[in-house]
Amino acid sequence: MVAQRRHSLTDDLLSDLIRAEDDGDRLDAAELRMLAGGLLLAGTDTTRNQVAASVQVLCEHPDQWELFNQHPELAMRAVEETMRHSPIACGTVRLVVEDVELDGYIFPAGTMVLVNTLAANRDPAVYDEPDRFDITREWAPAILTFGGGVHYCLGAKPGEARDRRSTEMSSAAGCGNPRTTGPAPWKPIVSLSGPKSLPIEFDSQRSSPT
Ligand code: HEM
Predict the structure, then answer these.
(1) pTM of the predicted protein model
(2) Is residue 78 part of a domain?
(3) Residue 46 sits in a domain of what CATH number?
């Protein structure tokens, strides 16, 4: 695709990356491949796993699904809450570049820090009853599922939007009483996690067949 686009640029992201120039410097083929591959992985594995995880937690809380069905305007809060309660990205990594003290702990330069964002999302000092799944939480502090700071997820907005659209669409399509019909084991949480498979069934709210 890179070779093709070099001959005829379009309005897509790859063409924009080829056009991009910084002080006369342009991305070479290897850099373009690395960026395109990285974006593909970062943008697809994450969202499909998170959509499954979000649907699962809604299946396990039928009262919350019903509430969402009655109040589709809660969609954004529902997305936030499913991602706080059941995130598929459970941590992020930082390298300490200079000695730093935080909360009485010294982190010497060169230390690799694995930040447990899963635990942070359930911190009782931050969230009221953190283990409770509640799509009506108001003024909840920002979740850490998309990381934070300069490396904050580039796709946080499209990621959330896709997730929201999926749940909205399922709701609009008339999925009533969704429930899991078998085990939904999760992948290890060290990298990208989420259900390996998620067997579900639901009742059609438009007509009788399921
Ligand atoms: C639900 C979906 C997603 C989740 C849970 C997620 C999660 C994350 C996390 C935890 C990070 C690390 C942030 C940090 O270290 O502070 C990250 C970075 C990143 N994400 Fe996502 N992501 C999602 C969707 C996407 C999508 C759709 C794209 C692309 C369109 C994307 C592109 C990226 C990129 C490029 C980075 C690296 C940013 C940097 O290092 O500056 N992500 N994401």
Answers:
(1) 0.88
(2) yes
(3) 1.10.630.10
